Automatic annotation (TrEMBL):
Superkingdom of origin: Bacteria
SUPFAM superfamilies registered for this protein in UniProt: NAD(P)-binding Rossmann-fold domains
Domain Ketoreductase: 6-196
Protein name: Short-chain dehydrogenase
Coiled coil: none
UniProt keyword Cytoplasm, yes or no: yes
Key words, A-Z: Cytoplasm, NADP, Oxidoreductase
Length: 252
Protein backbone atom coordinates (compact mmCIF):
# COMPACT_ATOMS: atom_id res chain seq x y z
CA UNK A 1 0.00 0.00 0.00
CA UNK A 2 1.36 3.42 -0.91
CA UNK A 3 0.65 6.67 0.94
CA UNK A 4 0.64 8.31 -2.47
CA UNK A 5 -2.35 6.46 -3.86
CA UNK A 6 -5.52 8.26 -2.89
CA UNK A 7 -8.49 7.08 -4.94
CA UNK A 8 -11.29 9.55 -5.72
CA UNK A 9 -14.47 8.74 -7.61
CA UNK A 10 -16.27 11.90 -8.74
CA UNK A 11 -19.71 11.75 -10.34
CA UNK A 12 -20.98 14.50 -12.64
CA UNK A 13 -17.45 15.62 -13.52
CA UNK A 14 -18.18 16.81 -17.08
CA UNK A 15 -18.99 20.41 -16.09
CA UNK A 16 -19.96 22.70 -13.25
CA UNK A 17 -18.86 21.92 -9.72
CA UNK A 18 -17.91 18.31 -10.50
CA UNK A 19 -15.49 19.31 -13.26
CA UNK A 20 -13.95 21.97 -11.03
CA UNK A 21 -13.63 19.51 -8.15
CA UNK A 22 -11.95 16.90 -10.35
CA UNK A 23 -9.58 19.63 -11.54
CA UNK A 24 -8.84 20.64 -7.92
CA UNK A 25 -8.04 17.01 -7.10
CA UNK A 26 -5.39 16.76 -9.84
CA UNK A 27 -2.56 16.55 -7.31
CA UNK A 28 0.38 14.16 -7.19
CA UNK A 29 -0.55 10.91 -5.47
CA UNK A 30 -4.24 11.18 -6.33
CA UNK A 31 -5.94 8.86 -8.74
CA UNK A 32 -9.32 9.86 -10.18
CA UNK A 33 -12.23 7.96 -11.63
CA UNK A 34 -14.67 10.43 -13.18
CA UNK A 35 -18.09 9.81 -14.64
CA UNK A 36 -20.89 11.65 -16.44
CA UNK A 37 -22.96 11.13 -19.60
CA UNK A 38 -20.72 13.38 -21.70
CA UNK A 39 -16.92 13.46 -21.93
CA UNK A 40 -14.64 16.16 -20.53
CA UNK A 41 -11.62 16.33 -22.86
CA UNK A 42 -10.18 19.46 -21.19
CA UNK A 43 -10.15 17.71 -17.81
CA UNK A 44 -8.50 14.64 -19.29
CA UNK A 45 -5.85 16.82 -20.94
CA UNK A 46 -5.25 18.65 -17.65
CA UNK A 47 -4.80 15.32 -15.86
CA UNK A 48 -2.33 14.12 -18.48
CA UNK A 49 -0.39 17.39 -18.23
CA UNK A 50 -0.31 17.12 -14.42
CA UNK A 51 0.77 13.47 -14.58
CA UNK A 52 -2.26 12.38 -12.56
CA UNK A 53 -4.06 9.14 -13.43
CA UNK A 54 -7.65 9.91 -14.45
CA UNK A 55 -10.02 7.33 -15.89
CA UNK A 56 -13.04 8.80 -17.65
CA UNK A 57 -16.27 6.83 -17.96
CA UNK A 58 -19.45 7.81 -19.77
CA UNK A 59 -22.39 6.47 -17.79
CA UNK A 60 -26.01 7.52 -17.36
CA UNK A 61 -26.50 7.79 -13.62
CA UNK A 62 -30.28 7.93 -13.88
CA UNK A 63 -30.01 4.10 -13.98
CA UNK A 64 -29.39 2.89 -10.40
CA UNK A 65 -28.62 -0.72 -11.27
CA UNK A 66 -26.26 0.09 -14.10
CA UNK A 67 -24.56 2.79 -12.03
CA UNK A 68 -23.88 0.34 -9.20
CA UNK A 69 -22.67 -2.39 -11.55
CA UNK A 70 -20.35 0.08 -13.23
CA UNK A 71 -18.80 1.19 -9.94
CA UNK A 72 -18.47 -2.36 -8.69
CA UNK A 73 -16.58 -3.30 -11.88
CA UNK A 74 -14.33 -0.23 -11.55
CA UNK A 75 -13.41 -1.11 -7.97
CA UNK A 76 -12.94 -4.80 -8.69
CA UNK A 77 -10.43 -3.83 -11.38
CA UNK A 78 -8.26 -1.88 -8.91
CA UNK A 79 -5.12 -3.98 -8.51
CA UNK A 80 -3.06 -1.86 -6.10
CA UNK A 81 -5.14 -1.20 -2.98
CA UNK A 82 -5.35 2.56 -2.43
CA UNK A 83 -4.28 4.32 0.76
CA UNK A 84 -7.75 5.89 0.92
CA UNK A 85 -10.93 5.71 -1.13
CA UNK A 86 -13.41 8.58 -1.49
CA UNK A 87 -16.73 8.62 -3.32
CA UNK A 88 -17.99 12.10 -4.23
CA UNK A 89 -21.68 12.02 -5.16
CA UNK A 90 -21.94 15.25 -7.13
CA UNK A 91 -24.01 14.43 -10.24
CA UNK A 92 -27.44 15.97 -9.98
CA UNK A 93 -30.29 17.65 -11.80
CA UNK A 94 -32.69 20.43 -10.79
CA UNK A 95 -35.64 19.86 -13.12
CA UNK A 96 -38.59 19.40 -12.93
CA UNK A 97 -39.25 22.83 -11.41
CA UNK A 98 -43.05 22.78 -11.11
CA UNK A 99 -45.73 23.23 -8.45
CA UNK A 100 -46.40 20.07 -6.43
CA UNK A 101 -49.71 19.57 -8.25
CA UNK A 102 -47.83 19.55 -11.56
CA UNK A 103 -45.46 16.68 -10.69
CA UNK A 104 -45.56 13.89 -13.24
CA UNK A 105 -43.93 10.47 -12.99
CA UNK A 106 -42.14 10.76 -16.35
CA UNK A 107 -39.92 13.61 -15.07
CA UNK A 108 -40.08 12.99 -11.32
CA UNK A 109 -38.86 9.40 -11.42
CA UNK A 110 -35.68 10.02 -13.49
CA UNK A 111 -34.95 13.00 -11.21
CA UNK A 112 -35.14 10.87 -8.07
CA UNK A 113 -33.13 8.11 -9.73
CA UNK A 114 -30.32 10.54 -10.55
CA UNK A 115 -30.36 12.58 -7.34
CA UNK A 116 -31.18 9.86 -4.81
CA UNK A 117 -31.51 6.23 -5.93
CA UNK A 118 -28.29 5.98 -7.95
CA UNK A 119 -26.22 7.74 -5.27
CA UNK A 120 -27.60 5.10 -2.87
CA UNK A 121 -26.89 2.09 -5.08
CA UNK A 122 -23.46 3.47 -5.99
CA UNK A 123 -22.66 3.97 -2.32
CA UNK A 124 -23.71 0.40 -1.65
CA UNK A 125 -21.41 -0.82 -4.42
CA UNK A 126 -18.61 1.42 -3.15
CA UNK A 127 -18.87 0.12 0.41
CA UNK A 128 -19.08 -3.52 -0.62
CA UNK A 129 -16.33 -3.45 -3.24
CA UNK A 130 -13.86 -1.23 -1.35
CA UNK A 131 -13.90 -3.22 1.86
CA UNK A 132 -11.10 -5.44 0.58
CA UNK A 133 -8.81 -2.39 0.43
CA UNK A 134 -8.87 -2.10 4.24
CA UNK A 135 -8.24 1.64 3.87
CA UNK A 136 -9.99 4.76 5.24
CA UNK A 137 -13.15 5.43 3.25
CA UNK A 138 -15.21 8.59 2.82
CA UNK A 139 -18.48 9.38 1.10
CA UNK A 140 -19.24 13.02 0.31
CA UNK A 141 -22.70 13.81 -1.04
CA UNK A 142 -23.16 17.25 -2.55
CA UNK A 143 -26.36 18.36 -0.92
CA UNK A 144 -28.12 21.72 -1.02
CA UNK A 145 -29.67 24.33 1.20
CA UNK A 146 -32.88 23.14 -0.49
CA UNK A 147 -32.55 19.83 1.38
CA UNK A 148 -33.01 21.73 4.60
CA UNK A 149 -35.63 24.36 3.71
CA UNK A 150 -38.34 24.14 1.04
CA UNK A 151 -38.38 26.30 -2.09
CA UNK A 152 -41.72 26.57 -3.89
CA UNK A 153 -41.59 24.68 -7.19
CA UNK A 154 -38.54 22.63 -6.18
CA UNK A 155 -40.31 19.80 -4.33
CA UNK A 156 -38.58 17.05 -6.34
CA UNK A 157 -35.15 18.55 -5.72
CA UNK A 158 -35.85 19.36 -2.04
CA UNK A 159 -37.16 15.85 -1.37
CA UNK A 160 -34.31 14.11 -3.23
CA UNK A 161 -31.60 16.14 -1.51
CA UNK A 162 -33.28 15.71 1.89
CA UNK A 163 -33.28 11.98 1.20
CA UNK A 164 -29.58 12.15 0.39
CA UNK A 165 -28.96 13.98 3.67
CA UNK A 166 -30.73 11.24 5.59
CA UNK A 167 -28.86 8.58 3.63
CA UNK A 168 -25.53 10.08 4.73
CA UNK A 169 -26.78 10.11 8.32
CA UNK A 170 -27.81 6.46 7.93
CA UNK A 171 -24.31 5.50 6.76
CA UNK A 172 -22.87 7.39 9.69
CA UNK A 173 -25.12 5.50 12.12
CA UNK A 174 -24.51 2.10 10.54
CA UNK A 175 -20.73 2.45 10.50
CA UNK A 176 -20.32 4.25 13.83
CA UNK A 177 -19.10 1.05 15.51
CA UNK A 178 -17.25 -0.41 12.52
CA UNK A 179 -13.97 -2.10 13.40
CA UNK A 180 -10.64 -0.71 12.16
CA UNK A 181 -10.30 -1.15 8.42
CA UNK A 182 -14.07 -1.08 7.83
CA UNK A 183 -14.80 2.49 8.92
CA UNK A 184 -16.65 4.90 6.67
CA UNK A 185 -17.06 8.63 7.20
CA UNK A 186 -19.99 10.23 5.40
CA UNK A 187 -21.03 13.86 4.97
CA UNK A 188 -23.80 15.64 3.08
CA UNK A 189 -22.34 19.05 2.22
CA UNK A 190 -24.28 22.04 0.89
CA UNK A 191 -21.97 23.95 -1.47
CA UNK A 192 -23.65 27.38 -1.61
CA UNK A 193 -24.99 29.05 -4.75
CA UNK A 194 -22.51 28.45 -7.56
CA UNK A 195 -22.24 29.89 -11.07
CA UNK A 196 -22.91 26.72 -13.09
CA UNK A 197 -25.28 25.50 -15.77
CA UNK A 198 -27.70 24.44 -13.04
CA UNK A 199 -28.03 28.06 -11.90
CA UNK A 200 -28.66 29.13 -15.48
CA UNK A 201 -31.50 26.58 -15.68
CA UNK A 202 -32.89 27.94 -12.40
CA UNK A 203 -32.85 31.54 -13.66
CA UNK A 204 -34.75 30.48 -16.76
CA UNK A 205 -37.47 28.65 -14.82
CA UNK A 206 -40.82 29.90 -13.57
CA UNK A 207 -41.23 29.73 -9.77
CA UNK A 208 -41.97 32.12 -6.92
CA UNK A 209 -38.41 32.91 -5.84
CA UNK A 210 -36.81 33.05 -9.30
CA UNK A 211 -36.03 36.78 -9.03
CA UNK A 212 -33.77 36.12 -6.03
CA UNK A 213 -31.59 33.85 -8.21
CA UNK A 214 -31.60 36.36 -11.10
CA UNK A 215 -30.54 39.09 -8.66
CA UNK A 216 -27.73 36.97 -7.23
CA UNK A 217 -26.32 36.55 -10.74
CA UNK A 218 -26.83 40.21 -11.69
CA UNK A 219 -25.10 41.32 -8.49
CA UNK A 220 -22.24 38.85 -9.06
CA UNK A 221 -23.04 37.09 -5.80
CA UNK A 222 -22.59 33.56 -7.15
CA UNK A 223 -19.59 31.57 -5.96
CA UNK A 224 -17.18 30.42 -8.64
CA UNK A 225 -17.02 26.64 -9.21
CA UNK A 226 -13.21 26.75 -8.87
CA UNK A 227 -13.32 28.52 -5.52
CA UNK A 228 -15.93 26.14 -4.09
CA UNK A 229 -14.08 23.14 -5.53
CA UNK A 230 -10.82 24.11 -3.83
CA UNK A 231 -12.64 24.57 -0.55
CA UNK A 232 -14.30 21.16 -0.92
CA UNK A 233 -10.95 19.52 -1.79
CA UNK A 234 -9.51 21.01 1.44
CA UNK A 235 -12.63 19.96 3.37
CA UNK A 236 -12.11 16.35 2.26
CA UNK A 237 -8.66 16.44 3.91
CA UNK A 238 -9.89 17.70 7.27
CA UNK A 239 -9.00 15.28 10.09
CA UNK A 240 -12.49 15.82 11.51
CA UNK A 241 -14.22 14.98 8.19
CA UNK A 242 -17.41 13.10 9.10
CA UNK A 243 -17.87 14.67 12.51
CA UNK A 244 -20.63 16.95 11.12
CA UNK A 245 -22.92 14.73 9.04
CA UNK A 246 -24.92 17.61 7.53
CA UNK A 247 -22.58 20.47 6.75
CA UNK A 248 -22.34 23.59 4.61
CA UNK A 249 -19.09 24.68 2.97
CA UNK A 250 -20.00 28.29 3.81
CA UNK A 251 -19.42 27.43 7.48
CA UNK A 252 -15.74 26.72 6.82
N1 LIG B 1 -25.01 25.23 -8.70
C1 LIG B 1 -25.52 25.47 -7.51
O1 LIG B 1 -25.79 26.62 -7.12
C2 LIG B 1 -25.76 24.31 -6.57
C3 LIG B 1 -26.26 24.61 -5.29
C4 LIG B 1 -26.48 23.57 -4.40
C5 LIG B 1 -26.20 22.28 -4.77
N2 LIG B 1 -25.72 22.01 -6.02
C6 LIG B 1 -25.44 20.61 -6.35
O2 LIG B 1 -24.11 20.51 -6.84
C7 LIG B 1 -24.02 19.41 -7.74
C8 LIG B 1 -23.39 19.89 -9.04
O3 LIG B 1 -24.25 20.84 -9.60
P1 LIG B 1 -23.79 21.86 -10.75
O4 LIG B 1 -24.33 23.16 -10.37
O5 LIG B 1 -22.36 21.68 -11.05
O6 LIG B 1 -24.70 21.30 -11.94
P2 LIG B 1 -24.42 21.20 -13.51
O7 LIG B 1 -23.52 22.28 -13.94
O8 LIG B 1 -25.76 21.07 -14.13
O9 LIG B 1 -23.62 19.81 -13.65
C9 LIG B 1 -24.27 18.61 -13.31
C10 LIG B 1 -23.34 17.44 -13.53
O10 LIG B 1 -24.08 16.24 -13.23
C11 LIG B 1 -23.99 15.36 -14.35
N3 LIG B 1 -25.21 14.60 -14.53
C12 LIG B 1 -26.48 15.06 -14.53
N4 LIG B 1 -27.32 14.05 -14.82
C13 LIG B 1 -26.55 12.94 -15.01
C14 LIG B 1 -26.84 11.59 -15.35
N5 LIG B 1 -28.08 11.16 -15.59
N6 LIG B 1 -25.80 10.72 -15.46
C15 LIG B 1 -24.54 11.14 -15.25
N7 LIG B 1 -24.20 12.40 -14.92
C16 LIG B 1 -25.21 13.29 -14.80
C17 LIG B 1 -23.75 16.30 -15.55
O11 LIG B 1 -23.06 15.59 -16.58
P3 LIG B 1 -23.72 15.14 -18.00
O12 LIG B 1 -24.82 16.08 -18.32
O13 LIG B 1 -22.54 15.18 -18.91
O14 LIG B 1 -24.19 13.76 -17.73
C18 LIG B 1 -22.84 17.37 -14.96
O15 LIG B 1 -21.50 16.92 -14.98
C19 LIG B 1 -25.43 18.88 -7.90
O16 LIG B 1 -25.63 17.77 -7.08
C20 LIG B 1 -26.29 20.04 -7.45
O17 LIG B 1 -27.55 19.61 -6.99
C21 LIG B 1 -25.49 23.00 -6.92
Amino acid sequence: MSAANQLYIVTGASRGLGAALAQALLAPGNRLVCVARSPAPALQQAAAAAGVALDWHCQDLSQPEAGARWLQAVLEAVDTPPASATLVLNAGVIEPIVPVAGLRADTLVPHLMTNLATPMTMTAAFLAASERFGCPRKVLAISSGAARRPIEGWSAYCAGKAGLDMFMRSIHAEYAQAPAGREVRAVALAPGVIDTGMQSTIRGADFAQVQRFRDLKAQEQLASPDDVAHRIAAYLQRPDFGSTELDDIRNH
